[in-house]
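Researcher: Go.
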Amino acid sequence: MQVSNRLNTINGTGDDGWGLFNRSRKMIADGVKITELTIGEHDIRTDASILDAMHASAKGGHTGYATIPGTNALRDAVAARIQSRTGVPTTRANIMITPGGQSALYATHLAALDHGDTALFIDPHYATYPGTVRGVGGVPVAIAATPENDFQPQIAELAAAASDPRAKSLLINTPNNPTGVVYSRDTLDGIAQVCKDHDLWLISDEVYDTQVWDGDHLSPRALPDMAARTMVVGSMSKSHAMTGSRVGWICAPEDMTEHLINLATNTNYGVPGFIQDAALFALNAGEALETQVAAPFRRRRDLTLAALAGQNVVQIVPAQGAMYVMLDIRATGLSSWDFANALLDQEHIAVMPGESFGAAASGHIRVAMTIDDAAYVDAINRLVNFAKSRISEK
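Model: Structure:
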């Protein structure tokens, strides 16, 4: 029996971006002690009060079939959160609860694209973006945001790609994974204009909206005339350390939300009620809990800056948000793959090669700030010393 061509080609023709991560996990399974700075998994667990709420809901009987678009209470809470932060009128009719942000990315692209349509996205990008587009039958097209421009997308290049009549959507992510860059107001204004000029859906991945260290988060849905053509992807994973609970949302125009609900009815059939109740409890805890979850990453961003001061071998990309820093290691003369693999072999430190996230991040590595402060600083210092040793060998 044959596997469908869609699944056979979902990761394209190359590495899916997870090669080094998988190798580090195998080393751990074989008993090697590895300092893991690879994936965006908090070093704290979901707050006990959220788990208590989840347990109480399950024990109370909210374990039957889910309400497909999400419970009214949770949709109302998400809508209120979005409206208060963006100023854009938002109701439950704009909200569908999803099994995490990845499910929302898949659904929004399935909603925006027909088979063979082009979906634009920015390189560097989260590793699943191209596969998500291929999975719905679309054609992924990356537009490079280069280190020379601090990884801010260039509007002229976006407009050129958008002029393709097959282009139907543009996916952006700010604060950005993997770079840690927050898109400027000028960049977002330009992105909005491209979408209006070329009649594109804008899919805005905003799962890091609570992790902004410099400046402010601006949702492009709040820009003039953009609410009608924007679908926002949100998640409890990063903001509330609920990665394993798999609860996120899509905020979209009302008519699109109805279609997305039809899709959910025929695919995942909703998110378990007791998990939705836990998410509602977490949102009702307010910004104090979100600040508590984000605080270690703000602190470690500052620790990174201090550790890198006074040397010019390893340079940091503007670290404005998210739980990662992107480091420029081009001075070593190594590719990011070679640097990361050698670092893993010699120092037992696992980081993600920049090319895991697209060609534009070549010569860079992504470091997840997801271990305790002392171990993290030690790892950064060892990484810098490793880089310096590579220069001395040249």
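Model: The CA atoms of residues 176 and 182 lie 6 Å apart.
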